[in-house]
Amino acid sequence: MTTNRDDVKDFLVSRRARVRPEQVGLPGGPNRRVAGLRRSEVAMLADVSVEYYSRLERGSLSGVSDGVLHAIAGALLLDDAERDHLFDLARAANASPVRGQRRAATPKTLRVGLQYTLDTFTGGPAFIRNDRLDLLGANALGRALYADLFRRSERPNLARAAFLDRDWADAFHPDWDVAADQSVAILRTAAGHDPHDEDLQALIGELSTRSPEFRAKWGAHDVRRHATGEKHFVHPVVGVLDLHFEGSRLMSDPGLSLLLYSAEPGSPTADALRLLGSVAATEQRDSAEHRGTDVRS
Q1: Is residue 57 within 8 Å of 67, Cβ to Cβ?
Q2: Over residues 155-167, mean pLDDT
Q3: Is the CATH number 3.30.450.180 carried by domain 112-292?
Q4: pLDDT tens digit string along 171-188?
Q5: 132 with 200: CB under 8 angstroms?
Q6: Buried b (16+ CB within 10 A) or exposed e, 34-46
Q7: What residue stretches are annotated with the MmyB-like transcription regulator ligand binding domain (predicted)?
Q8: Any idea which architecture 5-100 has in CATH?
Q9: Domains 5-100 and 112-292 fall in the same CATH topology
Q10: In this structure, what are the phi and psi dihedrals at residue 26, rounded to the nearest 5 degrees?
């Protein structure tokens, strides 16, 4: 039976090493022999025994109460995404193998209604992805934004493209490290939430085998919520795009996320999106006319 003990251990150790004593009101100094906090200091801050915390850090979250988890999260200064990840790890540790594998499978294709919904957004790129970063569907601008990827696959994967198609990724992302870190953190979050997702585990295995950069970033155990922020791209046709994004889970399909990109009104990016939409419409019309010629010939 597989367990998540190594993930628990590595996550807690990495978070403890990141906290400086001064951040939690403890004396620092140059003579400390560990990076970050000592186990005894985390135990004191969380009001548990050193032996008990040491057991947790060895990877055993079985039977740990929510109160203790909250205390550990507070002692380690975990943000919301990290706190949720810790609770996900605890749930996985306490679930039976049979129960753990009963989670509903994430859809691999979009319902027609979802694609219709995407198509109603015309002001910016919009797409739906799963937690493995597969693009399951997009509106016209979304397909135009990721045109190079959609030409190669009807369901491109953003993490695979970022790490295994570096010519495309380095040109498309002005800061590849930031984009790559975000992809890994999303995958790490998903792995903690659903450790029995076989497709996700296969993707992680593939990327770990083929990309040393992915292996290094995966080992950092960083997690994140991908709900709002900014994205920066360099599109091969329209150039620099500085976009705002909003993301939301779908109530009907909790394993899927809807992401909407928008540009500041009157900005160069807004002009670039209009140009991108015009180029995409022209290509779609030319493609339709070409198919019509083929049918008549």
Answers
A1: no
A2: 97
A3: yes
A4: 999 999 999 999 999 999
A5: yes
A6: eebbebebbbbbb
A7: 111-276
A8: Orthogonal Bundle (1.10)
A9: no
A10: -110, 155
Mean pLDDT of 57-64: 93
Domain limits, the chain? 5-100, 112-292
194 vs 4, 64, 114, 169, 235, CA distance in Å? 11, 19, 24, 27, 34
pLDDT at 286: 73
- Calpha distance 72→37 (Å, rounded): 13
The pTM score is 0.88
Q: Tokens in use for 189?
A: 């979050």
